[in-house]
Amino acid sequence: MNDWMWQQSAEQAHTAMAAAERLAQGLTSGWRPEAMQVPVHLASGEGCFAHENAQVLQFLEGDGTYLHKTSFGFSLVGLAMTMGTAIGNQARRRRAMQEAEGRFRPVDGGRMYMTNHRIAVQGRHQWIDLWFEDIRMSSCDTSCVYLTMGHTPPVALRVWPAPYHFTLYRWLAHGEIVHAGQPPSLGPGGAGG
């Protein structure tokens, strides 16, 4: 999945928040989603309540190495080459430092299944199971659901619409009904449980 798929307009962000609010209102009024049939093996008592395509990101540092070039010269051309090499080294070092900074980086993507016990992603390389009991904090914005795990770096799931899936997750995992726009529903690293 490419990043361009997740660039949202203000209208799309509004639509995502509205979907979450409709779900929250339905849950508040007593409506309950029904488990659906999926091709995933589920444990006894486990039901799937949503499945969508998702991209899995993880908060990781990058590689800060860069190629340092050396050039010497005494003529006018040699001095110009030396100066150009020094400027190039500085630019490469700056890019390497930016690349080394920690941020959410894509690690896999595929079909996401949200059950009443876990979020399972059938990735291109492996299955990723995010068990509810391992999730310490959660939040979302209009494009991602952010999960802080007890044993791995934080995870972000790019899924449409993210606020809807966050609201469903909070209800399935904690029995909480979270209304869009109210804490803990917004912002990576924001309040959440």
Describe the structure.
The chain has 193 residues and is an alpha+beta fold. The protein contains three helices and seven strands; from the N terminus they run αβαββββββα. A seven-stranded antiparallel β-sheet has the order 4-3-2-1-7-6-5, with helices on one face. β2 and β3 (118-123) form a beta hairpin. The protein is elongated.
List the keywords.
seven-stranded antiparallel sheet; disordered N terminus; alpha+beta; 3 helices; disordered C terminus; 193 residues
Number of E strands:
7
Query: What would you report as the Rg, rounded to the nearest angstrom?
Result: 22 Å
Mean pLDDT: 82
Oligomeric state of shown chains: single chain
Portion of residues within helices: 25-40%
- Would you identify the regions where 5 or more consecutive residues have pLDDT less than 50? 1-5, 183-193
Largest sheet: 7 strands, antiparallel
Order of helices and strands: HEHEEEEEEH
Give a short overview.
The protein is built from 3 helices and 7 strands; from the N terminus they run H-E-H-E-E-E-E-E-E-H. The protein has helices at 10-28, 76-100, 162-174; strands spanning 48-60, 103-115, 118-123, 127-131, 135-140, 144-149, 155-159. The radius of gyration is 22 Å and the shape is elongated.
Please outline the helices and strands.
Elements: H1 10-28, E1 48-60, H2 76-100, E2 103-115, E3 118-123, E4 127-131, E5 135-140, E6 144-149, E7 155-159, H3 162-174
Antiparallel strand pairs: 1-2, 1-7, 2-3, 3-4, 5-6, 6-7
